[in-house]
Amino acid sequence: MKSFYGHKICTAIIMKNKFLYLSLGTAAISLLLLQSCAVKSKNVIAVKNFDSDKYLGKWYEIARFDYAFEKNMDNTTAEYDLNTDGSIKVINKGFNYKKNKWSTAQGKAKFIGLKTEAKLKVSFFGPFYGGYNVVSIDEDYQNALIYGSSTKYIWLLSRNQKMDRKTKEAFLEKAKRDGYDTGKLIWVKHDKN
Length: 193
Prior knowledge:
It contains three helices and nine strands. By secondary structure, it is an alpha+beta fold. It folds into two domains: 1-36; 52-187, Lipocalin (Beta Barrel), CATH 2.40.128. Strands 1-2-3-4-5-6-7-8 form an eight-stranded antiparallel β-barrel. The radius of gyration is 21 Å and the shape is globular. The termini are far apart.
């Protein structure tokens, strides 16, 4: 009889802990989802009068911070295309020079508000979204400055493998004013096809 009651007590403790872990996990995920779409820098304003059709197509990554998901990657590009549901298909590609192989990730971006404001959320991992905010873009949609959900995420993108000096300097000055440590930028090499 003792072992029967001992087993019931152990089962009750395990079930209680499972419920606790599940509750904590759900709370943590909810908190991450709530925070993932908001830009945390105070003076950040996404581009207004944004034309998503002009933004579609291939972009070369000129510079970024060193993120785990792009570690050791050069020749990085992002391609954007319209999905039938109105969201934007995102295909990121890069060459991992340590592993000597190409890597591709496909995701989805959605506008947070109006499609005329370049404030989006992007996901590569199911229900988890991160901020994607176009904060500066030239008139011809050839160069863009992107901020993520916080000052830990920044990208300089161009339609060409190199960005002209004047545009690059303007983007760097803006990023500094907005609280980014531009000295930490990694300048991407483009030498593969």
